[in-house]
Amino acid sequence: MPTVTCHSSLEIDWVCVEEGRMFVAAVYHPPRPTYKPEVLLCYIESSVAEISHDFPLAEIVIAGDFNQLADQDVIECTGLTQNVYQPTRGGSIPDKVFVSNPDIYSVIRAVTSVVRSDHRPVVCLPHCDSTAVHKTRSQRTYRWHTPAMHAQFLAACASFDFYAPQLYR
């Protein structure tokens, strides 16, 4: 992990993967940050420089919501390449993936979110078959829960003595 001091209001987390072979950062740069964008850029630049010095063969991935931060600013201070070209929110691309090796991912797609969001998540896949999987939807009931069963469970919990000695035998 980078040892560079991070400004308290920056929202960035680093993860080391495969014992120093890859470093991944998750970034959220809000639309109206409480810090100057230069603070985030300086921190990212210092972190990438430290990782590159300490682990010269490591892959570096920085991904997240960069809002109005210009791609060129991040590219100039890190030397990384931006790989997302599909819109991720409306017609714009605030969600980006910057990588040290442009060949690390063979498939990069903005997909439909499974939760309610106005952002489309970005999925990056390493060298693999990129054929689409045909999805089917089905609904199954695994265990039936009625209000009466729930009430019976709560009544049993309320009357149970969790500190009784028989539990510790």
Question: What would a concise description of this structure say?
Answer:
The protein is α+β, with helices and mostly antiparallel strands and 169 residues long.
What does this structure look like?
- There is one protein chain.
- It is built from 3 helices and 7 strands.
- Helix 1 (37-54) links the parallel strand 2 and strand 3.
- With 169 residues, the chain is an alpha+beta fold.
- It has helices at residues 37-54, 71-78, 147-159, and strands at 11-17, 22-28, 59-65, 81-82, 95-99, 107-110, 122-125.
- It has a domain at 11-125: Endonuclease/exonuclease/phosphatase (Deoxyribonuclease I, Chain A).
- 23% of the residues lie in helices and 21% in strands.
- Helix 1 (37-54) runs parallel beside helix 2.
- The mean pLDDT is 86.
- It has a 5-stranded mixed beta sheet with strand order 1-2-3-5-4, with helices on one face.
- The two termini are 46 Å apart.
